Amino acid sequence: MGPMDIADEGLLDLALDHSVRWLREARDRRVAASATHESLRAALYVPTPEEGEDAASVIEALARGAQPGLVASIGPRYFGFVIGGSLPVTLAADWLTSAWDQNAGLYATAPSASVVEEIVREWLLDMLDLPRDASVGFVTGGQMANTTALAAARNAVLARAGWDVEELGIIGAPRINLVVTAETHVTIKNAMRTLGFGTKSLLPVETDGNGRMRVDAMKRLFECLTGPTIVCVQAGNVNTGAIDPIAEIVDLAHEHGAWVHVDGAIGLWGLASERLRPLMAGIERADSWSTDAHKWLNVPYDSGIVIVRDAAAHRNATSSTAAYLIQSSVERDPTDWTPEFSRRARAFPTYAALRHLGRRGVAALTERCCDRAKQMASLLRRDEHVTILNDVVLNQVLVRFSDSDELTRATVLAVQDEGTCWLGGTTWHGVAAMRISFSNWLTTEEDVERSAKAILACARRVWEARGAAVVG
Ligand SMILES: *Cc1c(COP(=O)(O)O)cnc(C)c1O
User: Fold this and answer.
1) Exposed end of the chain (fewer CB within 10 Å): N or C?
2) Does the CB atom of residue 141 touch ligand 1 within 6 A?
3) Quick one: how far is CA 211 from the chain centroid?
4) What is the pLDDT of residues 138-166, one digit of tens each?
5) ∠ at Cα 274 (128, 250), nearest 5°?
6) Ligand 1: centre distance to CA 85 (Å)
7) Are the CB atoms for 259 and 229 separated by under 8 Å?
């Protein structure tokens, strides 16, 4: 096999070896990365390459150099942020996606990628029981899904007010009321900034103790609003997992002609479950939705999804109509539905996930994560120093130790360092909390038991070292 061979099997075998070793290790090893910034620099740095290097030795150096700095977030005891793993079928499909290297921008450049997007769109709307004629775009993540949906929303509500954003831009446009929950995710704020709205122009609505938007507060706000309005609700608060009272908000918002966007990065997959769906009642009446396949669906990064009821508004906001593009009414040009132009055929792994799991599998996966969250809360609650701060309605658990910010933060660090599991800290309504999130398909009841034991042991050590001093 010469160096110019397009299929270098030896090289791919080497990558396969390293991949399999990593996956096995990620299941059992200490979850956090073990390397320091300096040691990673030392392992991976070479002066700017002039002559180049043999391919196998590059892959070897990359794999060996990067490994100590990898976080085993793909494994069953990673409870940080809201991070899913990868179902084996999705990883395999992702490899094919790389090997095929299709430019999924146009039907003409990647017919199979385009057809698979059409099919995933149909399955998705069917499984989640959302309007079957809604449009779907496959973007990098929840951030871009929110940005895309809100671009469509902005343009649509301004069009109704007689202002064409596509032609005139937003300078000089009528003001839009941007109603968000006080608990809104940072990516909504970021999307608003990208779309030309400062964060000061957001109108936050008060929330209740579990982080749900308060309908009475929203009613009061609506009494003084006129003109174009967008309302952002969430299905899955990033701290508590709480879901806004969507039905009541949609009714109220629609009475006022507002567009309702649902940030469903975490919770939207729960719509496949008969058990979880009622938590999101009314969600099918919203105007746009965003979600992540790389969270609860356990598809590799990067895989976000935007869904818009008014397909024309979506397409107007994102389509790249240029004279040299081949126009077709039947064949889907994926670039019409995302801000990107050339891109990876990222619907292949999601196709694999949905076909492999089926509606029942998606439902079971989301229900299982919620069960693990309840299990963790009940195991930790047994300790007298522990308070569970949230009502565990979805996959998130917020824990506080000895009602002390200092001890809670110290316990988070101790758990991260101990290595059985990994979780992060957060601030919830003014107090420090440990946040435990369940998004991985692999997590078993035993993983939760083992992790709860490790967390309580760390808390005890922290308490013994400094608890009496801090609390007493
Ligand atoms: C994760 C998350 C996002 C952002 O999604 P990315 O895929 O990280 O871009 C948005 N909203 C909520 C509620 C999230 O949990």
Assistant:
1) C
2) yes
3) 18
4) 999 999 999 999 999 999 999 999 999 98
5) 60
6) 15
7) yes
